[in-house]
Amino acid sequence: MDRKTFLELLEKYRNGTASEEERHFVDVYYRLFEKDKDVLRQLNEDDRRRLQERIKRGVDKKIAHNRPSRRSLSYGYYAAAAALIVGLLIFLYRPTSLEQDVIATQQDSIVPGKNRATLLLETGKEIALSDLHSGIVIGDSIKYEDGQVVSSAIAGQMLTLKTPRGGQYALTLPDSTRVWLNAESSLRYPAHFGTNERYVVLEGEAYFDVAKVVSLDQNGLSRKVPFRVQTGVQTVDVLGTQFNISAYAEDNKILTTLIEGNVKVSLGDTEGEKERMYHPLKPGQQTILQGHNLTINKVDVSLFTAWKEGKFVFEQEPLENILKMLARWYDVEIVYQGDKPSVTFTGSMSRYEHISEILDKISYTQAVQFETEGRRVKVM
């Protein structure tokens, strides 16, 4: 970027016509200078002092020229005015290395996912859940795990918990079943379960720890109440167990991994019981459903539940699958420069590492390289 283009960008920022990406660049640029007092480290102390004085005079002059009311002065306005002066001076001293620093600072804005979710009520109301809490509890009302009330008018409603890209959240259902939602996922469930079955609908990925529930039938005999998870054409029936389901639409497959207990996986219309074929699973087994083709394999379950423990764990995992996971968790876009590399990786990393550290570890193999621009990761 030359000085002329840079000044034009700052003028667009000042008059409010800059795009979101351009505004972000200027904000990052200003924060970089504010954060790194030695950004012009080759200057001596006198030069730095004179530079600070010139910046102050430039900001005061820019503010005086535009004469906004005192009340309307905002951080963005000061930032633009300061950046106009700072930017011109910095480009005079080191135009190339500073742009690299700005790009690096933009990369710092790519942070790992955190506790983020939205609760959708049947009335259409949306409640943005606090990122200071990790989950909610459904009972007579909806509360955070510390007892703080989120919503009280939920009787008879169907509710949906939804996580965005870069989000995760936990949920305790009315029967005490615990569910952990991974990024870009949703779970639809009733505010209260009936006595015949417990039914929920999943999109994306979730880990279930299903509570055992017993009720009385019409003859007064006790019976176990089944828990049913619907994901597309697949249904998982359980009584009390722990399992993980990954059903992202972009993956074109559904993985159901059993950790403990017993489950039955079936395909077809949930109403047509006689037409459904059940596939029982044992702990350590996993079903893979692609289209209407279902297979059962023995797996290392830790590979498929590591996300719940805050880790990425891969064993000969295709690069494309790994990058999909990173895209959902770090909320970035993956762009391939050319054909998708047909390589696999094995390793374990924290989900809370900076994305650049994870990409560096993958690129150490020299099988693939990455370049980050804003929230876009280029694969080369």
TrEMBL record:
Protein name stated in the entry: FecR family protein
Transmembrane stretches, start-end: 75-93
Signal sequence segment: none
Pfam families assigned: FecR, FecR_C
All copies of domain Protein FecR C-terminal, residue ranges: 311-378
InterPro entries, per database record: FecR, FecR_C, Ferrdict_sens_TM
Molecular functions per Gene Ontology: sigma factor antagonist activity
Gene3D superfamilies named in the record: 2.60.120.1440, 3.55.50.30
Domain (FecR protein): residue spans on this chain: 160-264
Record keywords: Membrane, Transmembrane, Transmembrane helix
Originating organism: Sphingobacterium phlebotomi
